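Repro case for the chain-ordering regression, as requested:
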Amino acid sequence: MPLSWAIFASFLLAAAGYIIGRSRAFASAGPDVRKLHSRPTYHGYSVALTALFPPLAVLALAGLLRMAGVLSAEAGPVVGLLALGAGVVGLGLGVTRIGQQFQARNAVERMVLGLLMLCSLIAIVTTAGIVLSLVFETGRFFQVYDWRTFFFGTEWTPRFQGNSQLGIVPLLWGTLYISFIALLVAVPIGLFAAIYMSEYASGRVRSIVKPAIEILAGIPTIVYGLFALITVGPLLRDYFAQPLGLGNSGSSVLTAGLVMGIMLIPFVSSLSDDIINAVPQSLRDGALGLGSTPSETVRQVVLPAALPGIVGAVLLAASRAIGETMIVVLGAGAAAQMSLNPLEAMTTITVKIVSQLTGDSDFNSPETLVAFALGLTLFVITLALNVVALYIVRKYREQYE
Amino acid sequence: MTDLPLSQPAAAMPGRRTGSLLAQDDRTRRRNAAESRFRLYGVIAIAISMIALVVLLATILTGGAGAFRQTYLNIPVTLDAEVLDPNGNRDPAEMAKVLTLAYGRVLDAAVDGTIARHGIQIEGLSEADIDGLISREASAQVRDRVLANPELVGQTVEFDVLVGGRIDGYFKGRVTMDSAERDSNTSPQQLMLAQELADRGEMVTRFNWNFLTNADASDQRPEAAGVGVAILGSLYMMLVVLVLSVPIGVAASIYLEEFAPKNRLTDIIEVNISNLAAVPSIVFGILGLAAFINFAGLPQSAPIVGGLVLTLMTLPTIIISTRAALKAVPPSIRDAALGVGASKMQSVFHHVLPLAMPGILTGTIIGLAQALGETAPLLLIGMVAFVRNFPDGLPGGLMDPASALPVQVFNWTQRSDPAFIERASGAIIVLLIFLLCMNLLAIWLRRRFERRW
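-- result from build under test --
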């Protein structure tokens, strides 16, 4: 791998530059180091950075060109040599700048600031990458498949031979149904747990229960998925679905919804805990002073005051539920259908993204490309929910600050 | 006017108490009942979440404990030189041409010998039952050892060979005589034979280190499957995440918290980061597939791609916690540094950053723990593939196909043999132990170094 060698060599060059720069600075200062504008180490850093940036820039540029297909893979050694050459030139330039008047510290700080700024742009680059890759591939999908059939089609039957029906409606139905059940479980439990912990529990109970609930938040979703698959699914099938004659499948909407609800409990409870704690104590004191019981205080004063924040928390939880993958892959099943029976297997957008993109996939067929359109839909839905939720939460915080 | 109520007759005032203050009237009782009901709801909510946590952990632990124990059959194997080294010159290169099939025959003979030596007689025991007693992996096991040490050929050597998955399941209680009746892969006679051998001390179930070091095994051999490749793959990915996300995340936070001017661009960046933190993980998987594999041409199933995807996913978490840590350092520290003539950059790097370090480390470890448990994006970049070979050492190994712990769990849940469910739970135990260690480290760091001003 010439590339990693080139990177290694340029770092070596930078280290050499540091030592050379530092000793040159000492030399140019003569007997009295105080004559230098900057301390010798800064001269060292300045040379090191001027020696490091050019080769890295060359390598990054070459990498981009190679991805774009302009540069062939055989050009590797040439690129490496070019990068090293750039490094040597940078080193030379850096060394010639050293002198008593050279403001090495300011130069280094400017370069470091530039570097910091560059790093903070990564977030934007990531978002742009997500949007670009999704939009680009979705565009290709809509060239081979009619967008009306995708958004309004009620049938999902991908076939390898082509002529597939790829309607998103049944997937959307499954997603929303499962998320609804999950919220039905998570919101009351999470909210009541948060209320109890912030208004009633003693310090000792709080110090035990709060970390325990946070453990639930730290468990990876694959664990919940396995739990749904081997415990909750068979349990619901044997004790509810089959005796009631409602179905005989281990994976069902209710399985996935229940387990996802458990996963969301800590999410809802910690968010609502923050929000309830943000309600000023004076409101509580006022209500209690007028003779209301603690529960009346909570129901008639604290909760109405915290309502916008709690709505925001519920929306954030909903966006988590809609985007959740492993629990539904293992718990909800793969049958795309629209039914009201919660004990039947249904499927979600995320399940179908996984199933269309794993295994051998041909990136020109609509059956594979549809995953990108599903991804874009998912991204847009969750983004909209997040933006609204964050807006509400922020607005609410300002209210009491 | 305040005396207005007084002018009304007392009886006209609703809810006015007339009885003793000590006796509770209906309304008070109702309100008190509502109060205790409300409290009860809270207790029930907490109880449900605690029970869910306990049941979740208990099922995984009891289900997965079996993966750490494995049944072995101890038999003396006569390594017949005629079969294993037809040319008789003990040259490993030539012996490598002998297929595992030949070793299988040698092993079958050894099993027959052991049964005969103990004089075990079971009615209706077929030859297939005896051959199926040991794992198909056992012959490969013996072959590897012989090829490593050709001098063994011609001798009689004691081997601890893996037994089949059904037999192993019998000793762990997963397979019973009843279920064996209906199972085409085993029979009650075979289980009786296994029981006889166990009674005579030839077949033992003991701790299974191989689960931690073995690679994945095929669908037919759950007894040989292990999480070695998955642990190594996860480790490589965590290394990539650590090397990339910590410097970038800390640098970005320093810029946004300490240097960024308040303008449109920084606003956009901030909104962006908080939104990225809430983007579903599977969308990052699509990004990885489109950008790193299809566009940049990196290999599928490689830890480097997984590491890059997880880096992008953890960056928002690290940035958010690092900014909180930087914000917690009081401004007086910065002012003092600036006051004695430090530049802005010096005050940040020499004073603020070291003081914020414990908080940054805690946030980083928690971000890494999240990344370690993430599954969905890795499925899309091909980490779900069946990988039998260990990846190379660093850095070349980053490009080799590997698995990851959570993906290995998913992979095993998709197999038909129920023994793989036990393996999946076992892999989750390994994963949870790693997560527990990371979180304990984070808590320790916070307790030990955190300062409150």
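Ordering looks correct now. Strands of chain B lie at 69-78, 156-162, 203-207.
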